[in-house]
Amino acid sequence: MQVKAVVPCAAAETELTLVNRTNGKRVKGRRINGSVYVVPSDQHVNAPRRDLGPLTMRELEEQSFDSELGEFVYDFRNYDVGDVVHFRDKIVRLEYDRKEDVTYFAFVSAYEADGVVEWPFRGNLTSQYKVGDLIDLYFRVVYDQKPFETLDYLKYGMTHGGKAPAINQYLMGQK
């Protein structure tokens, strides 16, 4: 979502009105320490918390899509901070980038323009995984900035200058 802040923001935490530049819809937002977040709707926040079993990329994306707002939010509909999310999906593309020393795992996405999401992991993993393999990963829901949530995998990239983590910490038995 491309947004435009309607209210000036100078404080460490500020309430905002955000405008979606595509459809003109206004939503509540908050700026915390320079990061802007869409405030989830009550319907999204108050959804029952439950473990849904393994989630595909599409299902994982749906967890942070607020259907009332029509926007992605930093809140997982059926999970709380501390919960473990079991991810299982088919690898649709696998590419090793020698320069970055990173293997990109691609999964089908319902929201990306090219239809896939790529998640990088450190090292050359192409001898361990192949296109068509099902992969099981385990992510923990953590705070990005309280009360806004993200996955520990995504937080790693944000706090390590965009670097990819090792895959081992997300494999079964490592959580």
Descriptors for this entry?
single chain; 175 residues; mainly beta; OB fold (Dihydrolipoamide Acetyltransferase, E2P); four-stranded antiparallel sheet; three-stranded antiparallel sheet; 3 helices; disordered N terminus
Detailed description of the structure:
This protein has 175 residues and is mainly beta. It has two domains: 1-39, no CATH class; 50-170, OB fold (Dihydrolipoamide Acetyltransferase, E2P). It has three helices and twelve strands, in the order ββββααββββββββα. It has helices spanning 42-45, 57-63, 152-159; strands at 3-5, 13-20, 26-32, 35-38, 65-66, 71-72, 84-90, 93-97, 102-108, 116-122, 134-145, 148-151. The strands form four sheets. Strands 1-2-3-4 form a four-stranded antiparallel sheet, with no helix packed on it. The longest helix has 8 residues, at 152-159. The protein starts with a strand and ends in a 16-residue tail after the last helix. The model is unreliable at 1-10 (pLDDT under 50).
In short:
The protein has helices at 42-45, 57-63, 152-159; strands spanning 3-5, 13-20, 26-32, 35-38, 65-66, 71-72, 84-90, 93-97, 102-108, 116-122, 134-145, 148-151.
